[in-house]
Specification:
Blueprint (H helix, E strand, L loop, with lengths): L16 H13 L3 H18 L7 E4 L4 H12 L4 E7 L5 H14 L2 E6 L2 H14 L6 H17 L4 E4 L3 H4 L13 H11 L12 H11 L2 E4 L8 H12 L12 H15 L4 H10 L5 H8 L7 H15 L3 H8 L13 H14 L1
Helix pairs in contact: 3-4, 3-10, 5-8, 11-14
Length: 357
């Protein structure tokens, strides 16, 4: 990490706040060894008990990436009955489609795919570019979360087993992201910059978000925290066992996310997420700092020819010219908090809940 994170700070030993936070949280978050095995066994038995005589006992997201692929494998290995949910945003790479097909076929998992209304998605993504806010991936992430929660409620599923894990994703500056579940913020950005109302796009309201959090209470289970999770070893494993193919970068299964993380964030905001991802791997002992620094000397796009293709493809698919997109890229950036949002309301509710508890 470096000062591209405006909020970074260093202690007397030269350690930054991210590393200190990682090492403080690791013992509380990671459940390895015998205790972790027992805790996972107890959790699996609870999921099975609640799902007895049901077609499914849990829900998982499936993007075709490393983490979600391995989660799909592990839940089947543990004897669970997952329903996989995939959100087709219109940006899937051909390789991602093939990977997902292989996974569900080999693991015998039912898959629900929600295909977006492309005209609405296209208009919303352009709105985020025009707004100049940092998390241009919200349109896809928000819709996925809404769809997943609604499918879980429809099937009366109480457990969401996610691929998010502490060992490879424990570090990420808060200023580099914005919560994808804030429907009010999304609608405000679309109202300001969009050209159409969102009729088919699955957008949540504050009431729905509160219902999910405080009443339905879909439990988010980070199953990969219950055992050592080595990214490189897992990639080799799923390649061998599931015929999975590597995309060339984290979250590169989506053409849009590949462009967003590998080019847009770097060029418009000066933020290279590889710093955070590599820092997590250093702290978890999977690589050393020297190796990470060497990796950062390489371009964020591992394939520069592919970058040039994507720079032409993205504007074209969004229905604008390269000149128009370049103009958007040069507009002043803004904060998500410059637009109406649910942040204050949710914080107030959390404080009330804490006082009541």
């Amino acid at each position: 990490m470096d000062t591209t994170d405006d909020e970074i700070s260093f202690d007397e030993q030269g350690f930054c706040n991210h590393c200190n936070k990682y090492f403080d949280l690791a013992p509380k978050t990671l459940h390895h060894g015998t205790d972790g095995k027992k805790a996972l066994e107890t959790l699996v038995n609870e999921i099975k008990a609640q799902g007895k005589n049901k077609e499914y006992d849990c829900i998982i997201g499936l993007s075709g990436g490393v983490d979600s692929t391995y989660v799909a494998y592990r839940v089947r290995e543990l004897g669970l009955k997952p329903l996989a949910v995939h959100f087709d945003s219109g940006w899937n790479s051909e390789l991602a489609v093939k990977n997902i097909e292989n996974i569900v076929k080999k693991l015998d998992i039912d898959l629900y795919t929600h295909v977006c209304d492309w005209e609405e998605m296209k208009d919303l993504q352009l709105s985020y570019f025009k707004a100049g806010v940092i998390n241009a991936d919200v349109p896809m992430d928000h819709a996925f979360l809404v769809v997943l929660n609604r499918i879980a409620r429809k099937n009366k599923l109480k457990f969401f087993i996610t691929g998010h894990n502490f060992e490879t994703e424990g570090i990420l500056p808060s200023s580099w992201v914005f919560g994808a579940n804030d429907g009010r913020n999304l609608k405000a950005i679309q109202k300001t910059y969009g050209t159409m109302k969102l009729k088919e796009y699955p957008v949540s309201t504050l009431v729905e978000e509160l219902y999910n959090d405080y009443f339905y209470k879909l439990q988010k289970i980070r199953i990969l925290n219950y055992e050592p999770y080595n990214k490189a070893e897992v990639m080799k494993f799923i390649e061998k066992e599931l015929g999975w193919k590597y995309y060339g970068g984290k979250h590169y299964e989506s053409v849009f996310t590949r462009f967003y993380q590998g080019h847009y964030l770097v060029e418009r905001f000066g933020k290279d997420k590889r710093r955070a991802h590599l820092s997590s791997l250093i702290c978890s002992g999977q690589i050393d700092r020297k190796t990470a620094l060497q990796e950062l000397k390489k371009p964020a796009y591992t394939n520069l020819d592919l970058l040039e293709e994507d720079k032409e493809y993205i504007p074209k698919k969004l229905g604008i010219t390269m000149k128009e997109f370049t103009k958007i890229m040069n507009e002043p950036i803004k904060s998500h908090y410059d637009f109406p949002n649910n942040h204050s309301a949710k914080n107030t509710l959390r404080r009330i809940k804490k006082i009541i508890s």
